[in-house]
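Instructor's aside before we start: the two examples that follow are unrelated to each other. I chose them only because their records fit on one page, so don't look for a connection. First example below.
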Amino acid sequence: MYRPNYLKISLSLLLKLLLCGLPSVAFTQTIAKPQTSSKPNQVNNRNQQSGSVQVKVPTKSLPGRRENGSTRRGGCIFGEQPLLVLLLPSTNLGLTTAAYPKFFWYIPDNTAQTMLFSLHTVDEKLRPRNLVYQTNFKPSSKATITSLTLPNNDQVQPLTINQTYQWSVSIVCDIQDPSPRSVISVHGWVQRVAIKNNVANRLKRSTSRERLSVYAEQGLWFDLLSTVVELRACSQSDTKVSDIWTSLLQQIELDYLAKQPLRQQCPPR
């Protein structure tokens, strides 16, 4: 019999065991500096017209696993791209200004019984310390790029500026067997940063599409990705937005996901 409370506890313990096995490394914060130009508006307009946004991301890599598959007997993922993938740069780290960011990942065709999302604070050696948020849910059985927004409520604290967090997504093939052989996991990092007043003012004066270049200049990966996804959902026939989406995935070496279905609805205006 399926017991959700027991399952959540078991999966939490399993995830801690998996994540605590990560190597310990020191982390020096590196925030990409914005591109300089005597005429930033002209550069932004040129990029948008060409369907290209060049994103700058932190050059510091953190230990992580943004892609993972399973060829083991009894595995539950398959299809054209049999990988569970976080939409993150290859450095495994993404920056954001959001207190409650949106996280994106790709899930392949699968027969998984449940999926687990977790967010932890980490200590000075990047080991998971405190659980910020965790939830489990039934994943789509069909390959898709999906997302989860960190809930903005009294139970979840907003991300602290300059604090590094580890986030992970796990597919559980068999809820009766919450062991490593039944679980496929990926994990990466998110850090909330502050922006200068002049950048914040530019964003306030900009449309959603105009903000893309600002986010790209500042290396704000999560803000950039969520905005592009929203534009795609609201303008499905816009080829320029599609080109930006493809270019963005190419820049982080995940271009093989560009044509995958995107599970996202246009938010009400």
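Example two begins here.
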Amino acid sequence: MDTNNEGGRGPSLAGIRVLDLARVLAGPTCTQVLADLGADVVKVERPGTGDDTRLWGPPWLPDAQGDKSRDSAYFSSANRNKRSIAIDLASEAGAALVRQLAQQADVFVENYKVGDLARRGLDYATLSQLNPRLVYCSITGFGQTGPLKDRPGYDYIFQAVGGLMSMTGHPDDVPGGGPMRIGASVVDLATGLYAGIAILAALRERDHSGLGQYIDMALFDSVATLSCHQAATYFQSGVVPQRLGNSSSGVMTPYETFRCADGHLVIAVGNDSQWRALCAAIERDDLAADERFGSPSGRSVNKPLVVAELGRTFASLNVADLQRRLDAAGVANGPINDMAQVFDMAQARERGIRVSLPRSDGVEVPCVASPIRLSATPVAYRSAAPKLGEHTSAVLADWLQAGEGAVDDLHAAGAFGKGT
């Protein structure tokens, strides 16, 4: 993968300054996308401890001597290409310093509780008076309005409250039944991605008006959007979606996980030609000729019978043999890979979905690459997640033209916390 943008026009967001007061995953995901696209993202962290996820180990990132550092692998997943500055927002000197930085920023991202930053003079109303061009994005659990706006929450909570867990897992009456969370933090990630899209739209609008605007992002809103097609079905039918395990409530049938002689394989059939191709590949012409299964709706209505018949045949076939047959027939299928298998795939290596980036001490940190592929302005991979506060002097010099004397004065005033 080209990580140096040789021959390109420069990163897409070069020149955009982002002040990042977000922690954990949703906000950092948003700002990492902006950083990957070339923005100068300055991560403002709490002195001493930093972003909560720095402490979410093990595993821990190694230091230059190979010993455990104070930073978790989790933290490294959403904070590459950023610079870190540690500022004590509880001190007036620290809050004033952030206001100064915000006057030089294009984007301000935060995920504090509703009203917290207003008490420090770091809310949109205050900062937009100082910098009318500022795009200010707040990311919270339930948003800035509504009866639940003051409640905290994490991804897991919103998978539950937002309906995902009501549709994920096996029915209660089968072994292992009950609600189940999705393995990945999909609500955090989706909210971060939507926030990034919103920020890019606001920057585009600013090109015309010259003014920034306020963006109110909520994990609750995002989780509802993740279920948009199930919600559309509910709106029209009045039928509440239920947990179906690895099956599907949609018209696509089969859309299942099948047990084979030596493992499992996922099969997805979306139309009649794929259905006939599947039947031919497994030598079940009887199923192709059965009028009950001759249309998507027919296969959906008779899903238990379709799944039972296919399951009987698949149980006698090896996964690799079945894959060869289905690939030749053009039928969508896939094995259930673990993480080691995913990154060992030739496809993964060809696409460069794993990259290794250096920290300031020379330690190489592996991470998952951005899925964004731009032909002229590709993603630039510059550095792994920063150490806490390591760029304080450099950021203040770049953004505020502050010399060593000014930085020393800020230290003395307590802007960087007590004892720093």
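DSSP finds 18 helices and 13 strands in the chain.
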